[in-house]
Amino acid sequence: MTSPWNGRLLEGKDLAPYTWFRVGGPAARLATPYDEAALSQLLREATGPVLAIGVGSNLLVRDGGIEGTVIRLGRGFNGIEVEGNRIRAGSAALDAKVAVAAADAGIAGLEFLRGVPGTIGGAVRMNAGCYGVETKDRLIEARVALRDGAIQTFSNVELGFAYRHCALADDAVVIEAIFEGAPDDPSAIRERMETLMANREAAQPIREKTGGSTFRNPAGESAWKLVDAAGGRGLRVGGAQMSEKHCNFMVNTGDATAADLETLGETIRDRVRETSGHDLHWEIKRIGKA
Ligand SMILES: Cc1cc2nc3c(=O)[nH]c(=O)nc-3n(C[C@H](O)[C@H](O)[C@H](O)COP(=O)(O)OP(=O)(O)OC[C@H]3O[C@@H](n4cnc5c(N)ncnc54)[C@H](O)[C@@H]3O)c2cc1C
After folding, report:
1. How many helices (H) and strands (E) does the chain have?
2. Helix, strand, or coil (residue 286)
3. What's the pLDDT at 2?
4. What residues does each domain of the chain span?
5. Which of 213, 262, 269, 271 is catalytic?
6. 120: closest CA among 146, 147, 139?
7. What CATH topology corresponds to 205-287?
8. What is the pLDDT of residue 278?
């Protein structure tokens, strides 16, 4: 980077601590720009591939690590502002914090974000959702830095949302998003959020090293039912296991490698194909080299 550059650049940084699975190799460069100008400069000057990550709650970084520049936004990108029935949130803000800020401001409709353990950037990229509401249902627009450093605002429609997908280029970096809800009593909103969290706690291994749902639900089907029917519940490869509690969640039981987790996932895909004919697709993003 040409100086001055307002950020931090680390070489060969191990990415495992930056993911929920706690596995994976190093990034050739891990960049943390502190403001938008630094992010644009980084994108202009970086050679090779770039990829933004959030808090790694949907990521399986392979053991060989990542060539190129991994961008992790932090301070300078985590503001949350209330504007009437709207919330403007930086992409590094945690979804749960945005949900709580909305509740405090009496804005209903963002309760679902309380249960998604990622950042706003990850929520936009993944069109994250739960209990019948997705990011696309509440998002008005997002500001995005493109590979050449230009910053552009995309409307909801322009983001091309689909199930756990948005149409942004892989190397685009979400900077902030605006959501809209409807007025409601803060205590009623908080109550709904508490119910949502209690349901999750009962149904999902949310305190383990996991990546959330491993596979996307095929149209009209539940991935977990297909995994269960294929005998996948509790299946192990090395330190990786399909959760006994929710069999579409993989967990690192302690000493799993990324290869263990990926092999387990592929084994499950083979078994499901044999037992039900369904071709499961990964929801977890697998990145890097083996
Ligand atoms: C216990 C548990 C429960 C979960 N429950 C749900 C659920 O109910 N619903 C649901 O939808 N998901 C769920 N997930 C998955 C995950 O939390 C979501 O996909 C979340 O949106 C990922 O956000 P993140 O910040 O962790 O992104 P990461 O995992 O770091 O990255 C995910 C993807 O987003 C991209 N990305 C991240 N930040 C940016 C950015 N600023 N700009 C551009 N691209 C970016 C990455 O490149 C990657 O492709 C769960 C995960 C766990 C561990």
Report:
1. 6, 19
2. strand
3. 87
4. 7-72, 80-189, 205-287
5. 213
6. 139
7. 3.90.78
8. 97
Structure tokens at 246: 């929710």
The active-site residue out of 164, 243, 262, 271 is 164
Residue for token digits 């739960």? 130
The 3-state DSSP class for residue 107 equals: strand
Q: Probe ligand 1: pick from 40, 112, 126, max atoms within 8 Å of CB? A: 126
The per-residue pLDDT for range 230-247, each reduced to its tens digit, is 999 999 999 999 999 999
Measured between alpha carbons, how far is 34 from 214 in angstroms, rounded to an integer?
A: 32
Beta bridge partners of 210: 251
Select from 30, 77, 116, 173 the residue to mutate for testing ligand 1; criterion: most ligand atoms less than 8 Å from CB.
116
Interval 129-137 mean pLDDT: 96
What stretches of the chain adopt beta strand conformation (E)? Answer: 7-14, 26-33, 50-53, 59-61, 66-72, 80-83, 86-90, 107-108, 129-130, 133-134, 139-145, 151-155, 173-180, 182-183, 209-213, 236-237, 240-242, 249-252, 285-287
CATH entry 3.40.50.11030 includes domain 7-72: no
pLDDT for position 1: 85
Q: Is the pLDDT of residue 157 over 90?
A: yes
* Cis ω before 186 (30° cut-off from 0): no
- Is the model's pLDDT at 137 over the cut of 90? yes
Domain 80-189 CATH (choose: 3.30.499.10, 3.40.50.1240, 3.30.70.120, 3.30.465.10): 3.30.465.10
Task: Work out the angle at residue 20's Cα, subtended by the Cα atoms of residues 270 and 24, and round it to the nearest 5 degrees.
Answer: 70
* Alpha-carbon 28 to chain mean position: 21
